[in-house]
Amino acid sequence: MRAPQPASAAFVDSGRVRADEIREKYLSFFEERGHRRMPSASLVPSSYDPSVLLTTAGMQPFKPYFRGDEKPPSQRLTSCQKCFRTVDIDVVGTTKRHLTFFEMLGNFSIGDYFKQGAVEFALELSTQGFGLDFERIWVTVFGGDEELGLGPDDEAIACWKAVGVPDERIVQLGRDDNFWQAGPTGPCGPCSVHAFR
Fold first, then answer.
1. How many angstroms separate the CA atoms of 178 and 160, rounded?
2. pLDDT category, 183, cuts 50, 70, 90?
3. What's this model's pTM, rounded to 2 decimal places?
């Protein structure tokens, strides 16, 4: 896949964009690509999960599927999950990105596509769905962690390069920024984030 050309920027240039418009564009985009739209789960996890008191991430309601405990309703899911976090409560209000209650949009593959597919969907949604300029998209990837005995996420780096993101716009960050885990045990791993600058 080569670097996408910007779509009409009408969505982002149309003035103020409401949260419900972003939410619907995101969920519809993934539905059109074979994902089943799932409702937001309760803030209080419905199944026994000793790692949290409240739902803290968009993928948390899907942990039984990723662990293989339950069969998912589809291999491709998308959702807008209500989340509540307090792990970084000391920085809430000091930045524009730290909140205690928020909605997390997500697309999930359980035994279907993996990193390359996720990267291609993310880029297509950003440039064609939202009309963002590809040249202003930067990404972060897991840069490794000595304590975990893990090196950089070379696979994610290769995926972003494969869609045309140059090295200078791929930033390697540590465990605090690009490694997801919902407790001391269970599903976890490196993650990648893309941002518009």
1. 15
2. low
3. 0.85
